[in-house]
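Minutes, project huddle
Topic: does the predicted pose make sense with calcium ion bound?
PN asked that the exact inputs be recorded in the minutes so nobody has to dig through chat later. Recorded below.
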Amino acid sequence: MLNLVRMMILSLVIFSGTSLFAQPADIQEINAQFKKIDTNRDNVISLDEIQIYQAQTFADLDKDKSNTIDSGEMEADQTDIHKLADKNQDGKVSQEESVSQFNEYFKQMDKNQDGKVSEAEYTDYWKLIYKF
Ligand SMILES: [Ca+2]
Ligand SMILES: [Ca+2]
Ligand SMILES: [Ca+2]
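Predicted holo structure (tokens), as shared on screen:
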């Protein structure tokens, strides 16, 4: 599992180059994001909540409502969360690719695999990604 996380980080770094990761998110930002996703405020993120967050994020980024996020729209993605989502490498992220990417994040964040992401699991995950 740890190897998987390492590989994931490595691929993130390779994929994105250095520019976007040069601006580090801080821990407050990560906490604020957790609270934003945890809409029912029970201090865990459920799969439902991550899917709602995915839909909101996607709609926010898809400015021209084309149902895909193109490279220009991607630049507005301050969370970098869609970086690896473009599986077929056509330079655009489809709704399906976005959903599967968020599901993947959810699985990776849910370390103890209880189907919920606790605040600790969430912050640990992003701390690793952003190398705090
Ligand atoms: Ca919740
Ligand atoms: Ca679009
Ligand atoms: Ca969990």
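Observations noted during the meeting:
- Strands lie at 44-46, 68-69, 93-94, 116-118.
- Residues 13-23 have pLDDT under 50 and may be disordered.
No decisions taken; revisit at the next huddle.
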